[in-house]
């Protein structure tokens, strides 16, 4: 398969081998794309170097705190120097303070609301703006969302509001960047057992709930998210932009 041969991409959000970002990065790489990786903080440096290093010693692996404009500027300067141009960007980054995902949404602090939106939604705008000048041959920007953006999922709280902002930002970015042949879409994934999902009380019963209620009677696999990532990055999706694609075994269509 060489659907993405000759394409250059940059991946934000690998933390470890279970990360959705890693599943999509592997699928992009297997489809022929050359990738750069960013990691959030020294804590994750070793993990990402070990994973992304398997793509060759010359793979660009660089830190990026998406709340820092100077980091974003540096990262795209490095990617531009390495690749000369860019076709693909994966945004698989989210954070809300833990206490905001535990109590009631009504108690969300101003600071937790600000941080959740800065890291999880505004970052897509900032990364897209920085990537666009390098996407001289057109591009595909893919961001990860979740059903809690459109319906209440207990405890998802401010993350649901931030994902709603991410999805709306996707539409406005698609409008602005469309004339440059840059497409912007979200994958709304069903629950996946990642570092971000770990420690969320009731996550195991959420996986069971999806198995019981989704039309396909199972949960989505990381490989399937990778395959959707390849599709959205490929010319097969050349006329798809501004969309939220549900990759959730059909769960989203159900009313009961
Ligand atoms: O978007 C997410 C989780 C993102 C996330 C996870 C954490 C855990 C650790 C954002 N911030 C933090 N902050 C931390 O301190 N998901 C789609 C997974 C998820 O998270 C939930 C879910 C699901 C599903 C939280 C509550 C309820 C359901």
Task: Please give the structural blueprint.
Layout: E1 8-12, H1 20-30, E2 34-39, H2 45-52, E3 61-63, H3 69-83, E4 88-91, H4 110-131, E5 139-145, H5 157-177, E6 182-189, H6 203-213, H7 222-233, E7 244-247
Parallel strand pairs: 1-2, 1-4, 2-3, 4-5, 5-6, 6-7
Helix pairs in contact: 1-7, 3-4, 4-5
Ligand 0WE binds next to loops.
Number of helices, where a helix is a run of at least 4 consecutive DSSP H or I residues: 7
Number of strands: 7
Q: Which architecture name does CATH use?
A: 3-Layer(aba) Sandwich
Largest sheet: 7 strands, parallel
- Mean of the pLDDT scores? 97
- Highest-level CATH class: Alpha Beta
Task: Give a brief outline of the structure.
The protein has 256 residues and is an alpha/beta fold. It is 39% helix and 14% strand. A seven-stranded parallel beta sheet has the order 3-2-1-4-5-6-7, with helices on both faces.
Describe what you observe in this structure.
- The chain is α/β, with parallel strands linked by helices and 256 residues long.
- The protein has one domain (8-247): NAD(P)-binding Rossmann-like Domain (Rossmann fold).
- The chain has helices spanning 20-30, 45-52, 69-83, 110-131, 157-177, 203-213, 222-233; strands at residues 8-12, 34-39, 61-63, 88-91, 139-145, 182-189, 244-247.
- It is globular and about 50 Å long.
- Ligand 0WE is lined by residues 94-96, 98, 101, 146, 153, 155-156, 159, 191, 196-197, 200, 206.
Entry keywords:
39% helix, 14% strand, globular, alpha/beta, 256 residues, single chain, Rossmann fold, binds ligand 0WE, seven-stranded parallel beta sheet
